[in-house]
What we know:
The complex is a heterodimer of chains A (488) and B (468). Helix content of chain A is 75%, strand content 3%. By secondary structure, chain A is mainly alpha-helical. Chain A has one domain. A two-stranded antiparallel sheet of chain A has the order 1-2. In chain A, strand 1 and strand 2 form a beta hairpin. In chain A, helix 4 (103-122) packs antiparallel against helix 6 (137-147). The longest helix of chain A is centred in the C-terminal third of the chain and has 32 residues, at 319-350. Chain A starts with a helix and ends with a helix. Chain B has helices at residues 2-19, 23-42, 59-78, 80-85, 89-108, 112-130, 137-168, 173-182, 189-206, 214-221, 224-249, 254-278, 282-303, 308-336, 360-363, 365-379, 385-399, 403-429, 441-459, 462-465; strands spanning 49-51, 55-57. Chain B starts with a helix and ends with a helix. Chain B is mainly alpha-helical. In chain B, helix 9 runs antiparallel to helix 11. Chain B contains 20 helices and 2 strands. A two-stranded antiparallel ribbon of chain B has the order 1-2. Chain B has one domain.
Amino acid sequence: MITILLIFFPLLAALLLLLVNAERAKNIALFAAIIEFGISIFAVTQFQHNADVQFEASIPWIQSLGIAFHVGMDGISLLLVLLTTFLVPIIILTSFKNDYKNPAAFYALILSMQMALVGVFVSLDGFLFYVFWELALIPIYFICLLWGGENRAMITFKFFIYTLAGSLLMLMGLIFLYQHTEGIHSFNMEALYKAGQSLSATQQGYVFVAIFMAFAIKMPIFPFHTWQPDTYTTAPTSGTMMLSGIMLKMGTYGLIRWLLPVVPLGLQQWGHLAILLSVIGIVYASCIAIVQKDFKRLIAYSSIAHVGLISAGILAANVQGVQGAMIQMLSHGVNVVGLFFIVDIIQQRTQTREISSLGGIRNVNPQFAVLFLIILLGSVALPLTNGFVGEFLLLNGVYQYSAAMAAFAGLSVILGAVYMLRSYQSIMLGEINTITAAFAPLSGNEKIVLVILCAAIIAFGVYPKPLLDIAEPSVIKLVEGVQTALGK
Amino acid sequence: MKALVLLSSLGVIALLAEIFSFKKLMYPLVLLGLITTFILNLSDWDTNITYYNMMRYDNYAVAFTSVILVIAFLWFLMSESFFKASENLTDHFALILFALTGTVIMVSYTNMTMLFLGIEILSISMYILAGSNKSDLASNESAFKYLIMGAFATGFLLFGIALIYGATGSFDLTEIKVFIASHQGNVPPIFYAGVLMMLVGLSFKVSAAPFHFWTPDVYQGAPTVITAFMATIVKTAAFAAFLRLFSTTFANVSDTYVNIIWIMTAMTLMIGNISAVLQTSTKRMLAYSSVAHAGYMLLALLAGNSYSNSAVLFYTTAYSIGSIGTFCILNIVTHSKGNPARTTDGIQSGGDTVDSFNGLGKTNPLLAFVMTIALLSLAGIPPTAGFFAKYYIFTAAFQSGYAGLVLIAIVASLIGVYYYFRIIIAMYFKESSDEVVVVQNNHQLLLILVAVAIIALGIFPDFIIRLL
Lengths: 488, 468
């Protein structure tokens, strides 16, 4: 019941927004998002720490085809729902100062996207998962198209076609699995798992490729990333935050839930290549990030590097890797939203995102400098920040799979430090110039957002156990399932 | 059967309206008649009566008749001004109603002669209606091309029927089926020739490549409301007729034609979608998109399994509702921007480029919103009816092992997204200084119905796919 509430509450709020006048839209949206967060916190308190799927609900939907509205949460889903409901109010708050045309529509789209994202994370039916997966694309497409920056029509269009191509391949894979389910065909997750594991190794290989493409494009990992930097740069800041903070996790979550346990033999065949691509992506994106002039674009590339490590950790299919990925998904969500907000703050005040034309902001606004530094340190995975726990576990996981891969993947930490610290140095330190001289102090809302994010970064870095505990039983169960299927 | 009687009587009444001068009453009368027909038609469900071995009103026929009646109702809501503007109002009513009668025969025939009669009743009405804009050169050209090409196709169809009669000695579908079953291995070669001839004839009617060349010209030249009629009702009926023949009677000789239909499906999907990308005229683009949609439906026909009938039923429903919406909006938009200026050759028209949709999101949010939903449905994006329709067809094709074609269909869908989204981008992204587009009340009702239907069918498709 609580799961269904989590899915449909944002949708109701979005519909309500269309009825109220534009002035009040943002307050109502924020209020709704906070209530949604409250509901998910309530779910966390009710959660039993074991591997079972909880808060389950199943309503017959398209009975003649064995499709049900089947939702529920285990630890993995719950953490991602928590991330979504935590970030959405923050994202709404960050866009408060922006004077959007037609704000009611804007916030309605954000909330309907939240509905689709929560839906993706709690679906236990393949068809339902696919519908939510696609559904998430429509609001973000319109957010980018209507409120985005320069040249947005072409860029968002490329993004749409690219992700749709991946999705349709996944649909093929899902239909293939569906037709191999026993008895009356069904899209039930367990039935699909069974069907997938009963396939021959070659067939599993095909399914792996079809489904992996969808996730690889969504995350994105090299070489399917070409839509990402443009889209992240062009989208309005809240859109970029939704894309990078939450939507990206649809891909990594998909790997964990809808790929590894479904076709373990496919993983055996293609896993090595997939990890290799992820690792290439890490190094490649980090190197490109180093030479970026636009700070927003730099963060977009850094996001490719981070997600590459997450995907490598998941595909290594051991407990450390997957558990690290869970942690890193949360940390990355918080950090990247923070970083994009920093970009937005700088751009609003200086009208530029060019790293080289900024400088000395620390002297003008030391408070901002400290908050920026904390988020940045989280992003470069300094010990005692949230990034560290995740990266450590991930590298550990990849190391168990292959030491060579881990060595290259480890470059992400070093290169990450290089481009992040260099840009910090260039933006915040040095001489004040004409652009940065009048850097206005932070407004109340901005302070609230940054302080919340920084608090999350530090709290989670110092004491990650409560969140780790939520996912752990489910992760262990899942990895054991995959390992048994592989005969290890 | 009740539908057949009611629709033809309505047609005759429409002709009498001229004599007894109650022309003004015709429009509400027809709407009322359609609703009555729809309800009475439903009472035929599960009765399965055969009439003189010519027609059988089975559930297949009832289901498709109902879909056609619903679309016809929506179509009448869209085209009130077409009837008002015309001096030959009663003729047009009569022709449309007779065309509908033809479609009812096409979905319920059990005899080749009835198939032929149904197709001809429909086609002849359409030849005239395509040219109903008498002062417009393009409309005349459209009618003429349609007649020539249609007659050509009919020739093939008739020749095919004759050959099959020659081989089996019967027009009756059941007897032909019995004949095939009892002559396994030594069916006369002219029978196969007949099957292929009929395939060609029917492919013309559903505008499958490579027999689609008439479609863009005819669709573009005809008055937009008639184009909408051709793209939705005619296509639905033609596919129902096609499927009725090939999924039952010819199912046992499917070896003869599966490879041909395989190639035709691939060609239709690719040619339809790629040509649509290249069009500047929106109407012509929609014509090619209608060719492309025929490709998806051919995929279901090719699959030839237990999913096929319901897949085609659902697809035609979803596609027709989406198309009625887009054509209606296209009509409103092009009319508000003045009649398209035509060059003397009648082909190129300037008033319906994608640019005419510029800024519609601001000048008329309702139109833009419904258009977006309709286009998303045609492109096959959840949660619209079009998505489920495509999904269901892919499942059907997969079930019969046509994974390669599904892959082609997926690529085709992606190309489809490209041209449908051009309109969406124009509506929301491009600026326009134009004044607000005025929408009549019945159009508003129609558009809201269309939007609700698309979403509702997308979320609750079960009740339709369970029918067949």
